[in-house]
Design a protein that fits this description.
three-stranded mixed beta sheet, 60% helix
Length: 418
Amino acid sequence: MRSAPDTPGNTRTGAHAGSPGPVPASPGRILSLDVIRGAVMLLMAVDHARWFLSASRFDPTDLDRATAALFLSRWITHFCAPAFLFLAGAGAFLHGRRVRSRAALARFLLTRGVWLILVEMTAVRLGWTFNFDYGAYLFGGVLWMIGCCMILLAALVFLPTWVVGGVGVAVIACHGALESILPTPPAGQAVTGAARLWQVLYFGGTSRLGEDGPSFSVLFSVVPWVGVIAAGYAFGPVMLLPAERRRRICIAAGMAAVAGFVVLRGLNLLDPRPWSPQESPAFTVLSFLNADKYPASTPFLLMTLGPTLALVPLLEHARGPLARGLAVFGRAPFLFYVLHLPVIHLAAVLLSLARYGEVIPWLGANHPMLAPLPPAGYGYGLGTVYLASAAVAALLYVPCRRLAELKARRPSRWLSLL
């Protein structure tokens, strides 16, 4: 794809002659998107390190028991899935410009989607659980959700781009109405037929695949998120606009989304988790920010996508070691994601051996959906969580950099799957 001089396609880490050791970018890669993707990867590592190492016996968004620090450590990671999926949609549009065929783009998205679901059900599940009892437990996490959304986007790309964007915005804005229309799956009871379908696609939770099949636990349902990838696809053309116009659109759209969040949240609309005044002004603010993620409510998506959109033009000219480091992870997000879970899980195992002289059974449970509460007294402070996250980033930097360099030198269909 050839870009005009003021498009972000020419803003790459390798373009700055004074930057030491830049990683060469693949043709058409956009620095700001890579930096945001890289930040998403590191925040995701923090969230998963918190799960295995901090291991609270209560939900960190439960303001009756959580500290402000624990809540914010969880809340900041809420930006990961919306930002990554929205940028995946934009990346799909830009990829379509390179292949110059909607059929070829649809094949790429379909193949990629099936691949992500397969990896989720096998390697990622193993990284979460450290057990091989696939006949008892399967997990539909973020890769499952992205894979399903890519498969659905493969069908949508044959429509005009503005129609895809309209579908995305409509799903984001209106999907909350489904909760009042669809029957909520009964808690603790088996579901079949249409109820099971809607549980998988919208409500999430656990159901059994067949009478003797494994439990299938869906953390990220499909319906709200397909709107995000579709909106991201329609955002793709914005990245090809002249710099000043692109900046105005991104900031205006981002601020409009934030304003929409403030209005909806202030009126307690379209979110099943209402906010309420707390004992202190600080916790009242936290309650206001505590929008529902499962399934992702309209205020939740506006709260997370708004700042992401506003950041895109601000990061187009990012420079320095931090930007270059984040871009490395942003160019190899799949490799980082697949590797960081077992690395964090293994760190928790080693700490358990050092602390207890054995691996506590909780570390081999069916995380994250069917694991029991961690043992009383287990867990480490947030300082350990952030230290472990930094260590994981340092450990995975070299393999991610090597893969980014290889993909830049030898672009191929197979390497694109990594």
